[in-house]
Amino acid sequence: MAGKWMLIFILTIGMMLPSWLMGTKVEAAEADGLSDIVIFENVPQADVTMEGNEFTLSALNVYEDGHFTKVDEGLVWKSKNSNVATVEDDGTVTFTGQPGRAWVTVSNGQFEDRIALDYKPDRSTKKKGKPEFKPSIKKQDGDRYNLVQHALENMTMEEKVGQMLMPDFRKWEGENVTKMLPEIEEMVQKYHLGGVILFRENVVQTEQTAKLVSDYQAASEKYGLLMTIDQEGGIVTRLQSGTDMPGNMALGATRSEEIAEDVGSVIGAELESLGINMNFAPVMDVNNNPDNPVIGVRSFGGNPELVGKMGVAYTKGLQQHGVAATAKHFPGHGDTATDSHLGLPEVPYDLERLKEVELYPFQQAMDAGIDAIMTAHITFPKIDDTKVISQKDGTEIALPATLSKKVLTGLMREEMNYEGVVVTDALNMKAIADHFGPVDAVIRAINAGTDIALMPVGLEEVASGVYDAVESGEIPMATIEDSVERILTLKLNRGIIKEETPQPIDEKIAEAEKVVGSEAHKAVEKEAAERSITLVKNDGVLPLDASGDEKVVVIGDTFIGDLADAVSDHHSNTTLISSENSALTDEQRAVVSEADKVIFGTYTYNVYSRSANHPQMQLMQDVMANTDAEVIGVGIRNPYDVMAYPGVDAYIAQYGFRDASFEATAATIFGANNPTGQLPVTIPGADGGVLFEYGTGLSY
Predict the structure, then answer these.
(1) What Cα–Cα distance (Å) separates residue 60 from each residue in 113, 200, 353?
(2) Is 687 helix (H, G, I), strand (E, B) or coil?
(3) Which of 216-225, 288-297, 597-606 has the lowest mean pLDDT?
(4) Same domain, 467 and 540
(5) Rounded-to-integer distance, Cα 246 and Cα 249, Å
(6) Does the N-terminal peptide bond of residue 521 adopt cis geometry, omega within 30 degrees of 0?
(7) Do residues 102 and 115 touch, judged by C-beta distance below 8 A?
(8) CB within 8 A of 280, min separation 6: which ones?
(9) Burial (0-12, 13-18, 19+ Cβ within 10 Å), 453
(10) First-to-last CA distance in the chain?
(11) pLDDT by residue (tens digit) across 308-348?
């Protein structure tokens, strides 16, 4: 009898409880418009590449308004042939080794989906004898998996435009943005942003960066954010706590695709651990102009085939970790003598020449499945001779590639058959900002064929201006939808999907701290740096004897302390002379006069700093002329420095100013590293001839 009254009590209390306490997660989801559940790997854009006999399936909740989210909780996974494959509660599938097909289903109590998993003979190889068995996924067909189209049918115009805008929040009211601010969160949601780019000011520490990125994703509305960064390696390295790779030209000097892939993989792993899912790298420009002030050592070199091979290998490494790669700067920024941050460069060549040189690496990247291409703010008059009026001074100028339909649609899409995402270079650069209004620039870029407007000047004004252009028909809605389709396809392909239950931030930080700057990654950095060091000239000077009593003097200005520290680690009798005033005092001259060996580190970044008239180079000439000691030149950044002092006794090209490169140079000077690097560029002579050929590289 007591049991009966207890049951009545429970039922009565239950009826009095509010409905939200009685409801299940499914009921809550129904209230939010849940319309289906699908296995992510069934979606056409999902990558189902498999390695090994174990992998994890994931599920997406699909909503009536077209958006979709990754769901982990409240699911039941089952295998209908566990003899072939088993599945755990978290969707982890393990093939048993038995041949056949297993159907795996997932259910949230209301909706269900299934996928076919095969373990069958591998017919792709023609090996004799018994065939090898291989696991594979058989995607299911059906309209329910066309998530991109469903989204497009239900998104508002403002949501679609928002996917195409990618601002930076480098600073806010003069302060570096290192944590999420309410004002930024509001802008992410108000403008339905599809992505954000981070800079060095934003990514100071591993814990802080992981938290910032996580907060950005939490602020995003429906489709997740492309969290992007320029983590090229070398002189363009954003992560302050990451592994400082030696840079692309250093990789080109190694001639090793394996090292390039390893470097890309390290960068990809560190970005992935932090939640950064897209890298604006690699640079695929062919640096065949020594006077180039903006690309230089950011390029793999001056040979199109080398750039293509190394860039594709680097990309493969990045994409192994689910990080989207971006080849830049299309159609090629390598043969310019103007920095597009400061002016509007021109590349005067016709299509035939461009295909042989500038376009070749980009075609290789496209054919290898690069995720995105970044445009260059450069004019190519032989491709597009369209003239426009500059708002700067009213003069007539050529239309930059970023705003050219002939370049982005005609050349890239139609002739080179590229189907991926196109992103502009930063729209606040003077090559664009000086000549076009902020709104005009974005409208022109979209109509030309770009998908993402990077760093538009004035987000509110630009968003409003694009809305008006769409409503008036100046930008066709079909153009917007084509771009959004490509962007959402990229997000699905790389698994960039809003999560209903994100990984706890403490777990994410703990994982990131194990990955970012790890010892294993430092080992890759060390090998890449050592293999890159190029001994361009050696008149019997190197290697030096680390154990001897010789007096070694290290002279220079920029980064010279780093070089001196590395040299001192090998040879205690080392003196540093920092020539900040580009002239030696009498006391310093006395030190040099007593030296047995002089190591002079030069640092250049443009034509003037490399010229014989520059104070740095005049001091080098002075030292060479007024000491009996043998002089070893080190081109800290640009290999072209030796053009200003070709009579030096020995010359090493280092390609960058990160610690590992200085350490590798010092090890090379004292014979602890046998140099194997080869020049990835040709170094011209003063008379217009060749001072050092492409491929030059001496060893001990």
Answers:
(1) 10, 34, 48
(2) coil
(3) 288-297
(4) no
(5) 8
(6) no
(7) no
(8) 197, 228, 229, 230, 231, 232, 326, 328, 374, 423
(9) buried
(10) 98
(11) 999 999 999 999 999 999 999 998 876 665 555 656 777 88
Pair (467, 546) in one structural domain: no
Q: Are residues 420 and 512 in the same domain?
A: yes
Helices (DSSP H) in 107-195: which residue ranges?
147-154, 157-163, 182-190
Same domain, 317 and 347: yes
CATH number, domain with residue 194? 3.20.20.300
Task: Indicate the number of domains in the chain.
Answer: 3
The parent domain of residue 133 ranges over 34-146
What is the residue type of 549?
D
Same domain, 236 and 373: yes
Burial 311-327 (b: 16+ CB within 10 A, else e): bbbbbbbbbbbbbbbbb
For residue 559, how far is the Cα from the chain centroid? 26
Per residue in 639-651, pLDDT (tens digit) is 999 999 999 999 9
In angstroms, what CA-CA distances link 147 with 41, 44, 63, 483, 484?
A: 12, 9, 10, 15, 12
Catalytic residues: 341, 425
Question: What's the rounded Cα separation, in Å, for the pair 310 and 306?
Answer: 6
Check: CB of residue 205 under 8 Å from CB of residue 241.
yes
205/313 same-domain check: yes
My answer on whether 251 and 290 are in the same domain is: yes
Given a cut of 50, is residue 1 above it in pLDDT? no
